[in-house]
Q: What sequence folds into this?
């Protein structure tokens, strides 16, 4: 009994010690990378987005029966945050930056591209998926990359694609469903795509940078920012509604 208690005591003490060591490691971890965060807002009223008629493709129409899908050229959240804006570094990268090796996915679901805007690092693997019971045809229209055009049957395996050259932005359409439209934004280095809160976050080494924010209807805006170690910088963008 006594030794059992002793054992439990030792285990407990070890656990406390472990936690202490872990905490110390967390605190002592060097924070070389700084960050830039911010909000992207729409200044003014978002344009009316008509509901999309998908009756041509009953499978997809049925999926949106309760909530029709609207155009996505301007998507604003409840707090005025502008969604689907890509923020990236257009000047100041030193080659010391994060490179992306994870695979980015664009899914065709309910006859929409999810997400509507995909950002990708030049050379980063990307895959395209058909989650619908409908035939799709993926047709990007790049200017600085190779154009292609691929059909994808329901249940077909995803296919991979990489983009060699930076290009902001490549429109993607489906030749079968004219309402389907998405964008692939090919950048170099870190990027962030805003959600409906309009917020973004970039991890950057200390230095001076120019950030560019791209939105499909309103175009691009740039701002300079200085990143210092361990202290997040804030940059906000505002696009004027038109
Ligand atoms: Cu389609």
A:
């Amino acid at each position: 009994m006594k030794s059992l208690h002793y054992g439990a005591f030792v285990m407990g003490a070890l656990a406390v010690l472990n936690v202490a060591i872990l905490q110390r490691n967390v605190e002592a971890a060097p924070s070389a990378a700084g960050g830039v965060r911010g909000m992207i807002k729409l200044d003014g009223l978002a344009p009316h987005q008509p509901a999309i008629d998908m009756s041509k493709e009953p499978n997809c129409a049925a999926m949106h029966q309760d909530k029709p899908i609207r155009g996505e050229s301007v998507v604003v959240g409840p707090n005025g945050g502008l969604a689907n804006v890509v923020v990236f570094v257009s000047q100041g990268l030193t080659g010391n930056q994060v490179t992306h090796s994870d695979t980015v996915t664009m899914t065709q679901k309910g006859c929409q591209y999810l997400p509507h805007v995909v950002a990708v690092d030049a050379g980063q693997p990307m895959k395209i998926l058909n989650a619908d019971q409908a035939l799709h045809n993926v047709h990007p229209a790049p200017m600085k990359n190779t154009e292609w055009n691929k059909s994808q049957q329901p249940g077909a395996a995803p296919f991979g694609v990489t983009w060699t050259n930076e290009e902001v932005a490549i429109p993607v359409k489906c030749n079968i469903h004219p309402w389907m439209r998405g964008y692939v934004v090919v950048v170099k280095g870190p990027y962030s795509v805003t959600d409906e809160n309009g917020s973004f976050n970039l991890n950057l080494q200390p230095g001076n940078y120019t950030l560019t924010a791209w939105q499909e209807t309103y175009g691009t805006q740039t701002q300079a920012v200085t990143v210092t170690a361990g202290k997040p910088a804030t940059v906000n963008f505002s696009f004027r509604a038109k």
User: Anything to note?
Assistant: Residues 64 and 110 are 7 Å apart (CA to CA). Confidence is low (pLDDT under 50) at residues 9-31. The pocket of copper (II) ion is lined by residues 111, 136, 174, 176-177, 180 (CB under 6 Å).
